[in-house]
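User: My instructor asked us to take a sequence, write out its structure as tokens, and then describe one feature of it. I'm not sure where to start. Here is the sequence I was given:
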Amino acid sequence: MDLNQTETPIAPEQTAVRVALWRALHVLIDNKPNIFTDEIGEKLVAENGWRDRPDMNPEFSKNMRASIVGRARFIEDLVEEQVAQGATQYVILGAGIK
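Assistant: Let's start with the prediction itself. The structure tokens for your sequence are:
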């Protein structure tokens, strides 16, 4: 690499950021008990003022949040089921946050 060139900053894909924040929003504002509890996504993104983003509007994001947390719950239940049957590892592909 040419030392005179500036590197493009590495940043997470916006889709991954949005999903992490919707999962956080689910924990913060949706009715209890939560379908899925993710308190790490918000910390990974570490974006100030994220709740003011238009795509975080509670009404706008309601259906998409439900889809995201429903899929997360399904996968977690599937992993637990497979561990009970003897699985010792699994691989997550395409996480999007680097």
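For the description part of your assignment, you could build on this observation: The chain has a mean pLDDT of 85. Try explaining in your own words what that tells you about the chain.
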